[in-house]
């Protein structure tokens, strides 16, 4: 199933957010062409470890070696080289844009405009273009020109302030959440814009912001009330106002969700702690919130002598949501993810042998109408020059060689 097989995307993207968006569109069958600077390409290509014919290495050992980070975020994406600072390179990009449906870019704000390849210039040659920019702070506002890697965005957004232990420092979320969630917002915004174009014939410009994305995630919770009531912003592994949270058992950790009064009663009954139900100190929700720390200690004392298997069985039987906190190695070896296609072997383009230890992510939604396309592995820099420029611009190998000699390709 290739629902976007009639959509062509030009991708001027580097590092993570833009490439992840490009790969997401390729997963749905779009023809995604990544435009990279001759000689260097996406800077992530130069960050190891690398995968090649000799296996995994920290430094590039052969010309075939590709960065594992690059491989993880470039499946199904074609690579061409083009010097956008060269007048001929600019002209060729606009010729490609005439035949594209979407342009995506995540360079520093204003970079494409300074090259003469911003939305106004592209829309002039292709009025129906959907042009999407991703930036840390967006294209407008007082912060737009600040350095904006995911670390800074997590700090500036405030999400670090709500993450971590109440008595500990602000803590960064362990994945690049701004870099990864913003492209998902952008992907369905692009689909919405394409649908709008079907109805009206009008293209449009999309301005996606990583810091705005994190704000939308944070304030799905009633954080304004937390602040108003003077509650601690950071709750760590626990609920701010209940016994939901992390408990240590004899051979590992589990996390439980209580939340409602019926579950609180079931938890106490399962643990043989009827006295907690009868104690007037814990009679109301407000009472339990006031004394939540001592209630957690009571639950820990009763649950903590179980091993994970027995503790989980006990609370599952009682109707309490519970799960063991698993390690990353355990998750990597879980057939659940292989069976559903969530985690897959990694390949280099043109190789039938999977990369040793390499894993790429699949799409976490299964369609009843058929599987999404199997994508080729990440491509060497400029691997598709002859195919793309021949097919779309009619250039023959001699012309391409001349352009490469001039530094255009």
Can you tell me about this structure?
With 409 residues, the chain is of the alpha/beta class. The protein folds into two domains: 8-217 and 335-405, Crotonobetainyl-coa:carnitine coa-transferase, domain 1 (Rossmann fold); 245-324, formyl-coa transferase, domain 3 (2-Layer Sandwich). It is 39% helix and 14% strand. It is built from 18 helices and 14 strands. It has helices at residues 17-27, 68-72, 87-98, 111-114, 119-125, 150-157, 177-200, 210-218, 223-228, 261-270, 274-278, 285-290, 292-303, 308-317, 328-332, 335-340, 385-393, 397-405; strands spanning 8-12, 31-36, 50-52, 55-57, 66-67, 78-81, 102-105, 130-135, 204-209, 245-249, 252-256, 322-324, 343-345, 359-361. Strands 6-2-1-7-8-9 form a six-stranded parallel sheet, with helices on both faces. Helix 1 packs across helix 7 (177-200), helix 6 (150-157) crosses helix 8 and helix 7 crosses helix 8 (210-218). The chain is elongated, with a radius of gyration of 26 Å. The model has no long low-confidence stretch (mean pLDDT 95).
